[in-house]
Task: structure prediction
Amino acid sequence: MKRPDMWIMKDHPNQPERTEEIFDCLFCRDNSRNVIGWSKEDEGEFQRFMNYWESFKIGDIVVIMKGTRKTVGCVIIVSKPYEEEGIDDCEWFNFKRRAKLLKKFDPPIEHKTGTNRDTIIQYSGEGAKSIMDEVWEMVADEYSKKIENIRHDRLKKEIERFRLILGLSSELSALTRGLSTFCTFHCFSIAPGTTEKGHKALYISSFKFSFRNFDIYNRFIYLHFIPAVGTTVVVFFRRRAKREV
Result:
């Protein structure tokens, strides 16, 4: 498999001693957040980091480092960037992406070379290249399996979304056909001198006939729509008989 683009990030640049705790909270617990991100107060550095962040692609690997020489784990980017307020001291950042755990190193790997202390580091500089090359050798096989699972899950979601759209479309089509049939059937079935009771009975029978193949008929229409409109029809003919309409 072709090697994806790789990046280095620091989970909490101001508190490197909390890196493992934050990594566990975000990716390793049963209720993990599965999100990665950053914040930057320095306006002079903001655009540089934003350019890096927007260059991430779905499927890229992010290596999470503690300090400048230790790697705690790595994750796979699975979403486009979005902005949302930080929640707590675990998910403290507001520029976010969804990510999935690729591998946690316990204990952390200690590298021979180091990096600078930037929040986001691209594949450049001898230290960063050496670290990413070393990590890739350790996760290449696992990445291949994980990325296939991620693609499979995304495909399943797309299929379910497509099925939902098709289901809604078919129900809307059935509703349109049912309304057309009902209007035609009911209007042409009214005989002169039909009583109010007869109108109501005819209304219900024609409605059942018109919507006999409509899925949500039994769940909703029969319980709510028929009584409501049926009552309206009866009231209409009663008022018409009294020449109120």
Notes: The longest strand covers residues 95-110. The mean pLDDT is 77. The chain has two domains: 6-157, 190-241. The beta strands are 6-10, 35-38, 61-66, 70-77, 82-83, 95-110, 120-121.
